[in-house]
Specification:
Helix content of chain B: 40-55%
CATH class of the largest domain in chain A: Alpha Beta
Shape of chain B: globular
Distance between the termini of chain A: 53 Å
Largest interface: A-B, 74 and 74 residues
Shape of chain A: flat
Oligomer: heterodimer
Strand content of chain B: 5-15%
Largest sheet of chain B: 5 strands, parallel
Distance between the termini of chain B: 67 Å
Structural class of chain A: alpha/beta
CATH superfamily of the largest domain in chain A: P-loop containing nucleotide triphosphate hydrolases
Number of helices of chain A: 23
């Protein structure tokens, strides 16, 4: 038993354990870089040399780093940047260079982006008056301010590295003036800048306007998902293994006692080799190869590391794997009330009757006809009560709230808008006049479950009367 | 930092939530541990999601500067959300002395991220950057309609700011319905708050037991209410509301010396007649809490079941009848008929030459009635005002003098939202309307003017 063994560990290992916990958690949550990048050597090399040439030789460079989500693009960049810094430190070069990071998620238009560029370049000047002119003017003005600031150096201007995350979103800004200006400067050698766009979209070139495209170097660096399951598993191993004390100079200067490291690491290997965990890793590999999803399964286990329990626990890993695999939708709707269940079955029978959309009145009518038919046939009826319309409506609204039932929107506008579903849901609940003008009983809805799923839903419940069960299976 | 074991303390406070509390505490861990960037807390309504997290943080972080609790309904713009968050993290409270100013003005995401970075990384010299800060977003499903990037950026907050930030989303909608289309949001770690089992519910409601009442007796009552009620609603809050409202009535016979606490069945029988009537109305909030408390004392003192039932109905009745002028009621009836009857049958129903009953038989023979797409189920359809007026003049017995008044009444019906305009607002000619009144309400109105509406309705059941 690991818990009993731990008592024999020395007092000072308490510090170790705490450090180990922090290190592993940091890696799993993406706050501490993994010790090695597996299978990313060639893109790392390309990115590093591109950035380094700009920093050391004042070259203007532009490139796109393309790879699917969770394939390690950001890790490549942060590793490359730290390598650049390291190499310059080793060669004792002290000249300045700047890094500007933009992200399509937050820099939603060029003006915001420009202001943030200025802020990241530590220009404190009031920007309001320079933003009146064209984007390019303002931008060159900002870069020229840099020139003034560094006039004592032998280089005219310090190099600037632009990292553009979610490049495809930045490309959707009207007129693409940000990208145009950046590529133009990178190409024309006014200022040594490197522009590195990062995106998950493989067709990103098609988004660029002609004038932007012609200024881009057309260098693309691709990051691929892991090719083999073994490599994929070794990522998990790299994230969970504790470093041996000799090769971790740059790693939070953490040193661990050798016994603890070897015990910890062998437990990690043990867990990774367990059938259920290995099966989960294989599933993630087969479905998406997303590293973040892989690492997520171990967060709970890692956060349970304590002094009493200094190693990872298989049960924790298995518990979080079970959670990852459970269907959240089923969990939530498996405990709805009997009346809500009846309404869902009514909708199912409406669907089977050929209606693709229906409103509360139709559903209630279906429910009532079934109930009256059943009550007449059985004539016992004591356990089954036919609920009044307002009560059924309240139950129906609870289903809408859970988004098991969704209002049918006037299709086209909702398609284009990502938040469309949420809007119409609020309409449905608040009875606002936007979109649906009818009283809420008459607004058309659709059920978001397959008939088969509804039958499955019944299977796990014990409180459903036989009649309802039979009705659902019709 | 944690002297007593918060896990056991919270587990006692929240029965049946031990597993979830354990998980949350594990993720919270030590203040400087890296936390997962996103945690998604989900589960049905009234399963203690918000309550557990609120209490947990109150105990976990006594300074209150490590977590921000933001309700997304309350903070209906991104700006409000950002400023509220920063206020909490900075320990800033808007009050009189600072003229209710926020810690900082924060318009967009970039400002927010920079402010967070300034606050947590720069200002504290990197000291606070390692301490986990939490942003708890209640009713997180509302974030989806605040622009496509907000949710994604919040989930990447720790990556974007470089500070150690965990965002906890609380919602009763599953994560599948959140996932943005562009796929940029990393999936948060799910924590499921399952629905309470019956014994857990009884444990929780037991905490509501009045001080001078024996708990076992109280629980028997709750058990009985639960058995009836859980078939149509599993919401714990609704159950507690009902219990709080009905329990005083239930024990009243004990104090009035009509029964003892041991005669449970007899007690139930005594209040049975008005429980069934009242529980429905209380559940639908047709009787407000204060109304019930004020009037129910009178109601049950009489102890004559019929009177009691009647008085309960009267309590809710007032709201239902629409107090409208005589002609206006007929206008509304006409609008209802125009909304639900097919226009082609108007001549049969309303022409003066022949009686409607005879025609109605003929109509029945023509169509298959009771279909699934009858107007009663589809809801009101738009009709031209002229058609409504024609029906109005046909169903009203005596001639109407002034047509001006009628027009004004139509306008006021529209203002009352009893009619809704279906044509565009700037059209003065050929206005189309829909009738917005339910069948029950229109029946009540017809009764009050002694008009038999059922004779005129086509294909209703």
């Amino acid at each position: 038993m690991p818990a009993r063994k731990s008592l024999s560990l020395q007092k000072e290992t308490a510090v170790d354990i705490n450090k180990a916990r922090q290190l592993v958690l940091g890696r799993l949550c993406g706050r501490v870089a993994l010790p090695e990048l597996i299978g990313l050597a060639s893109p790392l090399d390309a990115v590093f040399s591109l950035l380094y040439r700009t920093v050391s030789n004042d070259e203007g460079n532009s490139a796109l780093l393309i790879g699917p989500r969770g394939s390690g693009k950001s890790s490549v960049i942060s590793k490359a940047l730290s390598l650049v810094a390291e190499k310059r430190k080793r060669e004792n070069i002290t000249s300045k260079y700047h890094i500007v990071r933009l992200s399509g998620f937050i820099h939603t238009n060029d003006k915001i982006a420009l202001r943030d560029i200025a802020r990241q370049l530590l220009i404190e000047q009031d920007l309001e008056n320079i933003l009146i002119g064209s984007f390019a003017d303002a931008f060159t003005y900002i870069l020229n301010l840099l020139r003034v600031a560094s006039v004592e150096g032998e280089y005219g201007q310090p190099p600037v590295l632009f990292i553009l995350e979610e490049f495809d979103l930045l490309a959707q800004h009207p007129k693409q003036s940000l990208l145009y200006t950046l590529f133009d400067i990178a190409q024309s050698q006014q200022t040594p800048i490197a522009v590195l766009g990062v995106t998950a979209r493989i067709d990103v070139m098609d988004l660029l306007e002609k004038r932007v495209k012609s200024r881009f170097s057309h260098r693309q660096i691709h990051v691929h998902y892991m090719q083999s399951l073994d490599d994929f598993t070794s990522i998990a191993r790299a994230a969970l293994h504790l470093p041996l004390s000799d090769n971790i100079n740059n790693d939070n200067n953490a040193t661990f006692s050798e016994i603890y490291v070897s015990r910890f690491n062998s437990r990690v290997d043990e867990i990774l080799a367990t059938e259920s965990v290995a099966a989960y890793i294989a599933t993630v590999f087969d479905l998406g190869k997303d590293v973040r999803q892989l690492l997520r399964a171990f967060v709970l286990a890692a956060s349970h590391i304590t002094i009493e329990q200094p190693l990872l626990q298989l049960t924790d890993a298995e518990a979080s794997i079970a959670k990852e695999e459970a269907s959240a939708k089923f969990q939530v709707i498996s405990t709805i009330s009997l009346l809500e269940l009846c309404l869902i079955i009514s909708m199912k029978s409406l669907v089977q009757g050929g209606s693709s959309k229906y409103n509360f009145e139709m559903v209630y009518n279906e429910y009532k006809t079934f109930m009256s038919r059943h009550l007449m046939a059985a004539a016992t009826g004591g356990t089954m009560k036919v609920y009044k319309k307002p009560i059924a409506l309240k139950a129906f609204e609870a289903l809408v709230e859970l988004e098991v039932v969704r209002p049918v929107t006037t299709a086209v506008s909702a398609e284009s808008n990502a938040g469309g579903g949420a809007f119409s849901r609020n309409d449905m609940l608040a009875g606002s006049t936007q979109g649906a003008r009818a009283p809420k009983e008459y607004r058309m809805v659709q059920i978001m479950l397959e008939p088969g799923q509804i039958v499955e839903l019944m299977a796990n419940r014990i409180d459903v009367p036989m009649v309802i069960r039979r009705w659902a299976q019709q | 930092m944690m002297t007593t074991d918060p896990n056991s303390r919270l587990s006692v406070q929240f029965p049946g939530r031990g597993e979830q509390i354990d998980q949350l505490l594990a993720f919270l861990g030590q203040p400087t541990d890296s936390s997962p960037p996103g945690i998604f807390v989900y589960g049905p309504t009234a399963t203690g999601k918000t309550a557990v997290i609120r209490e947990l943080f109150a105990q976990y972080d006594s300074t209150g500067q490590q977590y921000a609790l933001v309700n997304c309904i309350e903070c209906f713009t991104p700006r409000l959300l950002f400023e509220r968050t920063l206020n909490a993290w900075a320990g800033h409270t808007p009050n009189v002395s600072n003229k209710y100013a926020n810690y900082v003005r924060c318009e967009n995401l970039v400002d927010f991220i920079n402010c967070v970075r300034d606050l947590l990384v720069v200002a504290s010299g990197g000291q606070r950057a390692d301490t986990t800060h939490y942003l708890v977003l209640d009713q997180a499903e509302r974030l989806r309609d605040r622009g496509p990037m907000l949710l994604t950026s919040l989930l990447r907050l720790s990556e974007l700011t470089g500070a150690n930030i965990a965002v906890i989303l609380i919602s009763n909608v599953v994560w599948d319905k959140f996932r943005p289309r562009h796929g940029g949001a990393p999936d948060p770690i799910p924590i499921y708050f399952s629905a309470y089992t019956k014994s857990q519910i009884l444990d929780i409601v037991a905490k509501d037991c009045p001080q001078d009442e024996p708990q076992a007796f109280f629980l028997t009552f709750v058990d009985a209410i639960y058995e009836v009620f859980h078939r149509n609603c599993v919401d714990l809050n609704e159950l507690r509301h009902l219990v709080a409202m009905l329990y005083p009535k239930f024990v009243q016979p004990v104090f009035e010396k009509q029964a003892t606490r041991n005669e449970f069945a007899r007690l139930f029988k005594l209040c049975q007649p008005y429980f069934s009537a009242a529980s429905e109305r209380l559940y639908l909030r047709e009787i407000s809490t204060s109304e019930w408390q004020k009037n129910s004392a009178v109601a049950s003192a009489k102890n004559d079941p019929d009177d009691v039932t009647l008085s309960i109905y009267q309590m809710a009745e007032d709201a239902e009848t629409l107090d409208l002028p005589y002609y206006t009621k007929f206008l509304l009836i006409a609008a209802f008929l125009a909304s639900y009857n097919p226009a082609r049958l108007d001549a049969q129903y309303f022409s003066r030459s022949k009686g409607p009953s005879k025609r109605r038989k003929g109509a029945k023979a023509d169509d298959a009635l009771g279909g699934k797409d009858r107007q009663q189920l589809l809801g009101p359809k738009a009709f031209a005002i002229e058609r409504m007026l024609a029906i109005f003049y046909s169903i009203i017995a005596e001639p109407v003098d002034s047509s001006v008044d009628v027009q004004i009444q139509i306008a006021s019906l529209v203002t009352l939202r009893l009619l809704t305009k279906a044509s565009s607002g700037d059209r003065l000619d050929g206005i189309k309307c829909k009738c917005n009144v339910s069948l029950e309400a229109i029946r009540a109105i017809s009764r009050s003017v002694k008009f038999d509406i059922d004779r005129f309705l086509y294909d209703f059941t």
